[in-house]
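Appendix B. Extra example for self-study. Work through it before the problem class; the solution is given directly after the inputs so you can check yourself.
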Amino acid sequence: MTFGPAVGNVGMYVAREMLAAVPEDQRQSYLRMVEEISELKYQLGVEVARQLPRLLAEHDPELVARYLDQVKRVASVGWKSGVEVAKQLPDLYGAPDDSLAESYVEIITHATNGPSEDTGTSQLADELDRLERELREMEPKVKRAQELRTQLAARDRRDEKRRKHAVELASALPPILARLRPRYRPPYLLQVQQVAGADPEASLEAADTLLDLLNGDRVSPEGAAEWVSRGLEVLERNKEVGRGYFRLGSKYALEVLEELKEGLALKSIARVLKLYATALSGRDVVIRSTADVELSGARNLENIVLPPDIRFFDDDDKNFIAYKVAAAQGAGRIEFGTYAFSLESIPETVSALENRYGGRK
Amino acid sequence: MGVESQRVEDFRLTREPYYVPLGNEIELFEAAYESKLPVMLKGPTGCGKTRFVEHMSWRLERTLVTVACHEDLTASDLVGKYTLSGDETVWQDGPLTTAVKAGGIAYLDEVVEARKDTTVVIHPLTDDRRILPLEKKGEIVSAPDDFQLVISYNPGYQSVLKDLKHSTKQRFVAIEFDYPPPDIEETILKSEAKVDDDVAAKLVKIAEKVRNLRTHGLEEGVSTRLLVYAGQLIQAGVEPIAACEATICKPITDDIEMQRSIIEIIATQF
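Solution. Structure tokens for the complete assembly:
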């Protein structure tokens, strides 16, 4: 059954037999009334739709209006009470006492509404509604605040970690500096400072690695600066990868080092050369770097003094051969006493030569 | 007994072992043999101690029973023990008892490696009694006149825990060995490895240089035996540096830097 747009979806709960019981000229207004009251509550519409045909049949518009008004009053304070009142009220209209129905409605309204002090509850509810609305409006801000809180907590953790690594660096640097050759200290500190500014954790790695690179003469101070500069670029892109670079734990770090490496360091092969020269000469030879000798000033007849690195060739095997030649020559001088000669021994030597080869006139 | 004698006879050398005297060791050994005195040979590994004993065994026409001593060698292993044979136990002479009974030379190689009780067992054989008590068997074996006890001893190996007791050391005539002088070592190489003069001279020069490292991390210098090995490999067609690396360098040290320096020394010659 279709009642057209004016009656909305009232047909869902107005049964055919109910509509049939309504006088034909009143059916349209019946449906409007049902629709109107059902807007308050669906169940209310169902009950009113059931009761209204009885009242409409009496052709008393005032009674119908009175009925709908009383039902609405009760339903406004409690729809379940409204449904029950809508069901019982038509029977009360038949009572001899006209005021009975109104008294009934008053009682149910008060009973549903509760004592007067409970009206404050509705205010509370209103306030709650208002607050909830405000809270809903606040939700994006709360969400943003949470995001900021997370970001700041991460920053705090990073700061804490940074401070911890700074303390470790503070503890590690002095002994490293003590081990580092004095002439490398200024460039070393400059490089470590740069890395520490970017990431103290990476600077711990860099501090150790640079010590080995410089003390081992694996790179010059300029080479170390370039190596650090390339590492800082890596560090900027990715902290973890950058830290790996500074501990020489990445292929790229080794490649850069190989690119910057200048010659073969004496330190890396000093023991081999010592054993080699000792074997050749049969004497307990000491291999010393020219840099060390300059610093200590100590020279010894059994010393072979060699440069701290040799860069004659691109190939380190050839640089090793160069060291070997120099060591072999040093071993020869030691074995055959080239440096054992002293001016004090000249008279003795002349006498010995005269005895051996005859005097010269 | 017959079987044992037969077995001992197997140890009689029929061909003269090559040996070049380094000093008066042959005279000393012969004199000790005549005087029935035990002999102790001291010297580094591979310097020719065992070859010398073999040579003396051939020279004196005596059998040679050699026992390579090790840390698990007990007095029973040396003297003899009862073993099960079917339902009965039978006594089985150890190599020392066999050598004593048969006469000839008993050579205990690296005796200090053996357990302490073995050195005590040989004491009665080393003084004027010249007897070997078989305690478990309740028998005493007297050494015949042609019996000679020889031990070898490498002073370079010894430590506080592993050294011959003085009560043992002072029972022997000591003959000290060292690596031969260069000219003799070259002669040995030419004879033993069949290398030419040039290769022999180079090998000896390498050995001389490597032996300079004995107090610098190398426990022992390269032995004459290893030089012979190197020469033999070269004669077999192995490239000289590779041959020397395999025989002179790798066996004597595991220290990588020491190995590298030795290879450089080898490279200066080949």
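Self-check: Strands of chain B lie at 39-42, 64-68, 80-85, 88-93, 104-109, 131-134, 139-142, 147-153, 173-176. If your reasoning did not lead you there, revisit section 3.
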